Amino acid sequence: MQRGLAYPARARWYAVAVFFLAYLISIVDRQLLSLLLVPIQDDLQVSDTLMSTLHGFTFAFFYSVMGLPIARMIDAGNRRLIISVGIFVWSIATASCGLATEYWHLLIARTLVATGEAALLPGACSIIADYFAPDERGKAMGIFSSGGTFGNSLSMLAGGVLFAAFSDFDLVLPFVGRFETWQLVFVAIGLPGVLVAALVLTVRSPGRGSSSESAGVPLAVVIRYFRDNRFSYTLTIAGISFYFAGMLAYLAWTPTLLIRNHGMALGEAGAIYGLVLLFFGPTGTFLWGWLADWLQRSRGRTDSKVLCTIFACVGMIVPGIVYPLMGNVTSTILFMAVFVFFASAPLGTAPATIQDMTPGPMRGQATALYTGILNIIGFGVGPLLVALLTDNLFADPGLLRYSMVIVLIVALVIAVACLGAILRAYRQTVAVCARWETA
After folding, report:
1. Domain topology for 3-204+215-438
2. I need a labelling partner for 142 at 20 to 30 A (CA). Which of 16, 41, 81, 302 fits?
């Protein structure tokens, strides 16, 4: 039995709750830029492509570069402390976006946000996986990951409310000058994360199965395990990454779509999209995580989390094509809600697939590899391709909707093909992982 399972249920679910909160604020801080894109563009005079690079590729690149060395420290050291420091760094960096007066100021701040956030998923997923058995991880990861969907919603809702509240607020500070409304929003959103950084230190850290809290596993052993199971890891991570490319392209550009194509004000677009994310995002994440656990527990499907991710990707296609193309606001919101329900499902099942096929002492590094690649493809490529198509192929900001649909279709076809091809090999790798942990 995993040592984490020996802890009281209260301790295990408290850890999930704290990491849920940490994930929520990480996504709020990360996604706030997509809501504030238009006023930042107006103030700093930058194109869709440059803003998408700032929102996506820059974040993804530094997240990936810093992720593996941070994860190596997580697998060998004090996971809670490393996560706490990461939260502190990204929170201060988010607030510092409010001091930006040039594009390159935002660029530097986003690199620090990415560096700090690179500590959360490897550390939190490692601790949660040590606390819960494989047939409970879908639910636990679903609740944890629903922090991301709540975060997406809160970034729209809170960002829109604060933007409206600060619109008539005139703040001028010595040596800094006058704050624009979008700058004040960044400061107000970023600083509360410092309190969450302290809260993480109250989480009780479980043992790591077959290893101690501080021992770690030699890097050569980790590399050999990944190499021996490279087919499973390669196609699983590729499939999930292309799902994220389609999902994040829509997440990044939907507020702008509502503003450009439906004539909404920024606050109105944030409120509508935020409410859709609030009600349908967590519901999809939790229900699909529960379904994956049920399939594994009652049907013996150790590949249940991959199956549920495939079903969710297929479910995204029709509503994802329809809602950007609708001219009627009511119909747009209806199909948007269906899309969000399916699009949020893999947020819980996808990271759990990596935990199920990776031994405890390697989970931080496996998660960093997984999140690094999916951030490059998802955050880096997905939103950027939409901007490149809009700026160069269509050369018309009003045709953003067609760019979104093209990127979604291509991304989801690749995702389903990769995940469908991996089912048998994935089951074999899960069995290898179980033997490794009991050896």
Report:
1. Growth Hormone; Chain: A; (1.20.1250)
2. 81
CA 270/CA 279 separation, integer angstroms: 14
pLDDT band per the 50, 70, 90 thresholds, residue 177: low
Lowest-confidence pick of 82-96, 146-160, 229-243: 146-160
Q: Are the C-beta atoms of residues 144 and 348 closer than 8 Å to each other?
A: yes
Q: What is the phi/psi pair of residue 173, to 5°? A: -120, 145
Contact 127, 115 (CB under 8 A): no
Domain range annotation of the chain? 3-204+215-438
Which residues on neighbouring strands pair with residue 211, listed in sequence order?
A: 208
3-state SS of the chain: helix, strand, coil percent to 5? Answer: 85, 0, 15
- The number of helix segments (H) and strand segments (E) in the chain equals 20, 2
How close are the terminal C-alpha atoms of the chain, in Å? Answer: 12
Find the mean pLDDT for residues 153-181: 77
Neighbours of 169 (CB within 10 A): 10
Q: What is the C-alpha separation between 154 and 145, in angstroms, rounded? A: 14
Q: What's the pLDDT score for residue 173?
A: 67
- DSSP character string of 138-194: HHHHHHHHHHHHHHHHHHHHHHHHHHHHHTT---EETTTEEPPHHHHHHHHHHTTHH
Alpha-carbon gap, residue 284 to 426, rounded angstroms: 24
User: What is the phi/psi pair of residue 360, to 5°?
Assistant: -50, -50
318: which residues sit within 8 A by CB, 6+ positions away?
A: none
**Residue-wise DSSP of 203-245:** SPPPPBTTB-TTT---HHHHHHHHHHTHHHHHHHHHHHHHHHH
pLDDT at 5: 53
| Whether the Cβ atoms of residue 56 and residue 374 lie closer than 8 Å to each other | no
Query: What's the mean pLDDT in 423-434?
Result: 91
- Tokens for 110, please give them: 């986003």
When pLDDT is averaged across residues 424-429 and rounded to a whole number, the result is 92
